[in-house]
Amino acid sequence: MACVEVWKSGRLLICRRVDEQRAKRGCKVCLGSAGEAREVLREASKHIESPETEDVDILAILDVFDGDYETALECLFSAPGDRGPFLPRPFRYAQIYGLMGNTESAKKYYEEARKKYDSGIEESPEDSKGNGLLGIAYAGLGLREEAKREADLLEKSMSVNKDAFYNPKVKKLAYIYLLL
């Protein structure tokens, strides 16, 4: 298994596994700057019939790191589907619009996500994945008490073990409190 790493100012920002066959199809594996990472991903996408959603999200994240928010939005809007590796696309749109200072558009996407995941919780309340996403939406909308309630539900659903740090629920919990 090969890995694609993105570093900025001496800090590891992203590390994604890439299967070796894909890496051998012309992709550089050792990377330096975000610019090189962008080139590698764009080159890799030429060798793949339909780029994976994760690749599109990584390209958008690189654009965000460079402060090129418009290009990040174009990249995300041009990709099919609304799933991302950690957060569904409406959350990514909200993040980017928030970084641009466009709070109205950011709130619009947090509200869209809130509606989607609020209805999902009613259908399946035991689904803690939904609770985490709903908590992020509430936090993005500034609804502190609702976000804390969802964070508590998410926390109660988590198991504590040596691998807990790598649990996606931990990331969602941290993200809720980051937004609050």
Primary descriptors:
62% helix; 2 strands; 180 residues; two-stranded antiparallel sheet; mainly alpha
Residues in β-strands, percent: 5-15%
C-alpha-based Rg, rounded: 17 Å
What is the strand tally?
Answer: 2
Give the end-to-end Cα distance, rounded to a whole number of Å. Answer: 37 Å
Helix content: 55-70%
Structural class: mainly alpha
Biggest pleated-sheet summary: 2 strands, antiparallel
Element-by-element helix/strand order:
EEHHHHHHHHH
**Mean pLDDT across every amino acid position:** 76
Number of helices: 9
* Sheet with most strands: strand arrangement: 1-2
Low-confidence stretches: none
Shape: globular
List the helices and strands and how they pair.
Layout: E1 2-8, E2 11-18, H1 20-24, H2 34-46, H3 53-65, H4 69-78, H5 89-99, H6 103-123, H7 128-140, H8 144-157, H9 168-179
Antiparallel strand pairs: 1-2
Description:
With 180 residues, this protein is mainly α. It is built from nine helices and two strands. It has helices spanning 20-24, 34-46, 53-65, 69-78, 89-99, 103-123, 128-140, 144-157, 168-179, and strands spanning 2-8, 11-18. The chain has a two-stranded antiparallel sheet. The chain is globular and about 45 Å long. The model has no long low-confidence stretch (mean pLDDT 76).
